[in-house]
Amino acid sequence: MRSLSPKARRLIEHGIAALDRSEYRQIWLAWSKEHPSKRSGGPVNQAQDHLPAPLAQIVLAALDRLLVEIGKTAEDPAAPRDIAIRAANELGFIRDLESEVIADLKEELLLHPAAARAVGG
Hints:
Elements: H1 6-19, H2 22-34, H3 53-75, H4 81-111, H5 114-119
Helix pairs in contact: 1-2, 1-3, 3-4
């Protein structure tokens, strides 16, 4: 997985907060502290931010929650056009991020089968 952009991290944090599970938030915050977003006046460092399998599943749950929440805004006929367009763009970003997390999770489970047991597989 490529480095998580600041935008991706903000979205994940928002999604995890929406899940209202304190243990998920604690796991995410501990990982984020160990893997801070790396900026040095330029682009985000492209070093990989590998998500361990249990965290990847939490992130996927958070992204799924965001897809539902933001999807409602994108599909709301009463929403102003600019808001609906912004929501549709966010949905595309979230789907791309979700695809990356799924690919990372598959790789983790193939490389480290013991991680599947930690996830419950």
